[in-house]
């Protein structure tokens, strides 16, 4: 059983890392602020989600697992807001130049 | 803050319950934890009711659960979409702005909609369209691929979200 | 397992690189961003050193709150930045600066290298007496019992900082309200976040205080979260900073130190020493102090970011009713 849980953790966290890597590659390769914003928010959100899901089996208790999920939800909420704020600022800058 | 209508009281109870649940996750379930938790949850619910009045909106839990699943799936697709483009040597991007015309007035539903769609594949909301002109009232979206059927996808999401947060 | 030390070294290296970059970068806004990133990385280092309490404080105060203060400062300085950047001090001044910096660095390095090994520590005593208070977190024990005097004075210093900022207000604005810079048109995305996140932040902030009895956390870290929620509500345009002359605001500012002092003086009467807690009552008294403290510190931190009052107090009778914003710092 614990081997199976460890396997879930390894697979999920590794998959999450791939998304983080993708987000970082996009950050470096994409041409401007707005496209980079896509790379960071979309890839990192799901990357963090997978890492959290991978870590839940390792949490000592149900409470710790739920805490991890709360972290993800709060990051999603922050990310949804911040990406809009940055996009608006980038759009304004683009308009004025 | 006497909740006059049933809806207000219902909102107060639901929010206190949710915040109390959060408290037990963070602080634990000992007797003292629970006692303090009821006070803290009531306080935070009061803050919540001050900031977000129950108003005409009603959140439907069953549809919300279905929407969460849909949202999870879309998040995975969004991540895959970005990953595919980032790792592709040709860097297939056709970035640009589109204006999504929506009838939703500024308010909770519209804000929830933009927050929700900011996590979908290929779109980031970039503020309201200029107040004058043909696009007035719409939402500007930045897209990774302007040729994709973005408007149709957004319309589908708006319908889905409207089933969860609806005016009564 | 050699991968863990390798990762630690990597993080330490990144901290150094970010620190150097923050100092070297010419643009003020970039330097602020660098500073915030530096603080978060430093928090990671503290976690690796087994000091989660310090990590929390570093992330909340060192990175978050100081970051907010610096962003405000950078925005204020933006107008004059090109003028300042164009000025270059003469060679003697630069040599003098270099010499002073070298002396300070050498002095710090000398002190570090001459530290006794093992370093002197009171940790065994703190651990041995941990049972005296009934608290499970040794850090809270030290802060609230063994070194309570330091903690109390720290809060008084914060209060002095607010007074210092208020003393910058023009005479006409005294007793009026500070103005937090936010965009004239309310931003829908920020407003949504403020409406949804603030109640969650209130629960989180108080929970960080509540668990500190036995786990990492504390009134200061919790207060920073509450202050952040208050500032979020203010920046979203959902509330105004209250007039600094308002009695409720003044009460919130002094209640923490006042409760601390009262209980401290009570210790003088009951147990014969200032700031000593009577046997068996230490835990509830400490929690009472911390709950009073969180209100004071959250209000103080919010006011530090809000700055000096800029508009005069309202005419008598037209005082606005309690805004929702005030409730962010319960």
TrEMBL record, chain A:
The chain crosses the membrane at residues 6-28, 40-60, 66-87. The keyword Membrane applies. It holds the Pfam family PhaG_MnhG_YufB. It comes from Rhodoplanes serenus. PANTHER family: ANTIPORTER SUBUNIT MNHG2-RELATED. One of its GO terms (molecular function) is sodium:proton antiporter activity. This is Na+/H+ antiporter subunit G. Keywords: Membrane, Transmembrane, Transmembrane helix. InterPro entries: PhaG_MnhG_YufB.
UniProtKB/TrEMBL annotation, chain B:
It is a multi-pass membrane protein. Keywords: Cell membrane, Membrane, Transmembrane, Transmembrane helix. It is found in: Cell membrane. It holds the Pfam family MNHE. Coiled coil: none annotated. InterPro entries: Cation_antiport_E. One of its GO terms (cellular component) is plasma membrane. The chain crosses the membrane at residues 20-45. Signal peptide: none annotated. Belongs to the CPA3 antiporters (TC 2.A.63) subunit E family. One of its GO terms (molecular function) is monoatomic cation transmembrane transporter activity. It comes from Rhodoplanes serenus. This is Sodium:proton antiporter.
TrEMBL record, chain C:
It comes from the Bacteria. Pfam families: MbhD, MnhB. The chain crosses the membrane at residues 6-24, 31-49, 55-75, 95-115, 156-176, 188-213, 219-239, 251-274, 286-306. Residues 190-307 form the Na+/H+ antiporter MnhB subunit-related protein domain. Its main location: membrane. It is a multi-pass membrane protein. It is found in: Cell membrane. Signal peptide: none annotated. The keyword Transferase does not apply. Residues 14-78 form the MrpA C-terminal/MbhD domain. Keywords: Cell membrane, Membrane, Transmembrane, Transmembrane helix. GO terms for cellular component: plasma membrane. Belongs to the CPA3 antiporters (TC 2.A.63) subunit B family. This is DUF4040 domain-containing protein. It comes from Rhodoplanes serenus.
